[in-house]
């Protein structure tokens, strides 16, 4: 078996069997990561460039760790301090890098659709590490993988995605991934942070009441308020938002059942999620971080054209 795509540009491009193959491969790599020697030489003849035109900490480090665990040669590129600041175009930047015989590109960009544009002009596999407010496919894969690990499966589970839905590429990729795997999804947040017609367009439930959403769900994926993407104020203040939509331990303890709490990071502690909730037994946030390396190892491995039977 192999992936049906040559690039990982978004979840909407994947079939269910692609997602399941990535999960099966990640299961094997997670076993590798538990060993004293956490490296395999499967991509030792491969050079991967991380093209980050937008700031990142967790995603960039996770990809770099995944690449090095696979034995790949890694080149890190940051737009700040590069010729991009002098007006060099995206195509010229990438072509200059590819002329150095790079085999794969991992790309994050503030413009929605940038990886899709690039895929039409270059021949090597591209992994979308987040494009604008469009998609963040590896985050959605690791989130669903983490739910599967904690609850046994994704199918039939009720997942609430809470917070800034309008500006979140994580929300969109999660909706595509969860629905493809058979989960039921509710988005919850202030009306100003949920796009109109979302229920009809994506087949999700919409709620404006955080308690009702938490009482309904098995899993709550709490999103950060993305102030940097908001051109105008969409709620009165962070304090008011926290009081109306923040998830804290007292709220979780008042529910009639125990639910799983997730967060893609970075957490604005005390805003969308309190410290006592983030660090509680409900939380699988650190599991998400750990699973991110295994999922990204699987994606890179499969896109490199390797057979899924791993010699590890």
UniProtKB/TrEMBL annotation:
<feature type="binding site">
    <location>
        <position position="265"/>
    </location>
    <ligand>
        <name>carbamoyl phosphate</name>
    </ligand>
</feature>
<feature type="binding site">
    <location>
        <position position="266"/>
    </location>
    <ligand>
        <name>carbamoyl phosphate</name>
    </ligand>
</feature>
<dbReference type="GO" id="GO:0016597">
    <property type="term" value="F:amino acid binding"/>
</dbReference>
<feature type="binding site">
    <location>
        <position position="86"/>
    </location>
    <ligand>
        <name>L-aspartate</name>
    </ligand>
</feature>
<protein>
    <recommendedName>
        <fullName>Aspartate carbamoyltransferase</fullName>
        <ecNumber>2.1.3.2</ecNumber>
    </recommendedName>
</protein>
<dbReference type="InterPro" id="IPR002082">
    <property type="entry name" value="Asp_carbamoyltransf"/>
</dbReference>
<feature type="binding site">
    <location>
        <position position="169"/>
    </location>
    <ligand>
        <name>L-aspartate</name>
    </ligand>
</feature>
<dbReference type="GO" id="GO:0006520">
    <property type="term" value="P:amino acid metabolic process"/>
</dbReference>
<feature type="binding site">
    <location>
        <position position="139"/>
    </location>
    <ligand>
        <name>carbamoyl phosphate</name>
    </ligand>
</feature>
<comment type="similarity">
    <text>Belongs to the aspartate/ornithine carbamoyltransferase superfamily. ATCase family.</text>
</comment>
<keyword id="KW-0808">Transferase</keyword>
<feature type="binding site">
    <location>
        <position position="58"/>
    </location>
    <ligand>
        <name>carbamoyl phosphate</name>
    </ligand>
</feature>
<feature type="domain" description="Aspartate/ornithine carbamoyltransferase carbamoyl-P binding">
    <location>
        <begin position="7"/>
        <end position="149"/>
    </location>
</feature>
<feature type="binding site">
    <location>
        <position position="224"/>
    </location>
    <ligand>
        <name>L-aspartate</name>
    </ligand>
</feature>
<feature type="binding site">
    <location>
        <position position="136"/>
    </location>
    <ligand>
        <name>carbamoyl phosphate</name>
    </ligand>
</feature>
<dbReference type="InterPro" id="IPR006130">
    <property type="entry name" value="Asp/Orn_carbamoylTrfase"/>
</dbReference>
<feature type="domain" description="Aspartate/ornithine carbamoyltransferase Asp/Orn-binding">
    <location>
        <begin position="156"/>
        <end position="303"/>
    </location>
</feature>
<dbReference type="Pfam" id="PF02729">
    <property type="entry name" value="OTCace_N"/>
</dbReference>
<feature type="binding site">
    <location>
        <position position="108"/>
    </location>
    <ligand>
        <name>carbamoyl phosphate</name>
    </ligand>
</feature>
<dbReference type="InterPro" id="IPR006131">
    <property type="entry name" value="Asp_carbamoyltransf_Asp/Orn-bd"/>
</dbReference>
<comment type="pathway">
    <text>Pyrimidine metabolism; UMP biosynthesis via de novo pathway; (S)-dihydroorotate from bicarbonate: step 2/3.</text>
</comment>
<dbReference type="GO" id="GO:0044205">
    <property type="term" value="P:'de novo' UMP biosynthetic process"/>
</dbReference>
<dbReference type="Pfam" id="PF00185">
    <property type="entry name" value="OTCace"/>
</dbReference>
<feature type="binding site">
    <location>
        <position position="59"/>
    </location>
    <ligand>
        <name>carbamoyl phosphate</name>
    </ligand>
</feature>
<comment type="function">
    <text>Catalyzes the condensation of carbamoyl phosphate and aspartate to form carbamoyl aspartate and inorganic phosphate, the committed step in the de novo pyrimidine nucleotide biosynthesis pathway.</text>
</comment>
<dbReference type="GO" id="GO:0006207">
    <property type="term" value="P:'de novo' pyrimidine nucleobase biosynthetic process"/>
</dbReference>
<dbReference type="InterPro" id="IPR006132">
    <property type="entry name" value="Asp/Orn_carbamoyltranf_P-bd"/>
</dbReference>
<dbReference type="GO" id="GO:0005829">
    <property type="term" value="C:cytosol"/>
</dbReference>
<comment type="subunit">
    <text>Heterododecamer (2C3:3R2) of six catalytic PyrB chains organized as two trimers (C3), and six regulatory PyrI chains organized as three dimers (R2).</text>
</comment>
<dbReference type="InterPro" id="IPR036901">
    <property type="entry name" value="Asp/Orn_carbamoylTrfase_sf"/>
</dbReference>
<dbReference type="GO" id="GO:0004070">
    <property type="term" value="F:aspartate carbamoyltransferase activity"/>
</dbReference>
<keyword id="KW-0665">Pyrimidine biosynthesis</keyword>
């Amino acid at each position: 078996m192999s992936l049906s795509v040559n690039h990982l540009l978004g979840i909407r491009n994947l079939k269910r069997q692609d997602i399941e193959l990535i999960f099966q491969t990640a299961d094997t790599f997670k076993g590798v990561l538990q060993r004293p020697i956490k490296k395999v030489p499967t991509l030792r003849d491969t050079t991967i460039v991380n093209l980050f035109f937008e700031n990142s900490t967790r995603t960039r480090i996770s990809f770099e760790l995944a690449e090095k665990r696979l034995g790949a040669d890694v080149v890190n590129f940051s737009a700040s301090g590069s010729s991009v600041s002098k007006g060099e175009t995206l195509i010229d930047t990438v072509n200059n890098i590819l002329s150095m015989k790079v085999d794969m590109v991992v790309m994050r960009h503030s413009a929605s659709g940038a990886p899709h544009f690039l895929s039409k002009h270059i021949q090597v596999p591209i992994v979308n590490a987040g494009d604008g407010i469009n998609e963040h496919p590896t985050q959605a894969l690791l989130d669903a993988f983490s739910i599967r690990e904690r609850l046994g499966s994704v199918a039939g589970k009720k997942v609430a995605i809470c917070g800034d839905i309008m500006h979140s590429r994580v929300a969109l990729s999660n909706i595509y991934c969860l629905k493809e795997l058979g989960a039921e999804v509710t988005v919850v947040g202030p009306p100003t942070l949920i796009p109109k017609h979302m229920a009809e367009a994506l087949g999700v439930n919409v709620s404006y009441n955080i308690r009702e959403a938490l009482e309904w769900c098995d899993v709550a994926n709490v999103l950060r308020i993305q102030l940097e993407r908001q051109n105008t104020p969409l709620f009165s203040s962070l304090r008011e938002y926290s009081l109306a939509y923040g998830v804290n331990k007292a709220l979780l303890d008042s529910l009639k059942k125990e639910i799983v709490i997730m967060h893609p990071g970075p957490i604005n502690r005390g805003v969308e999620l309190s410290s006592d909730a983030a660090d509680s037994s409900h939380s699988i946030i650190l599991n998400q971080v750990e699973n991110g390396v295994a999922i990204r190892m699987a994606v890179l491995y499969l896109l490199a054209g390797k057979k899924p039977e791993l010699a590890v």
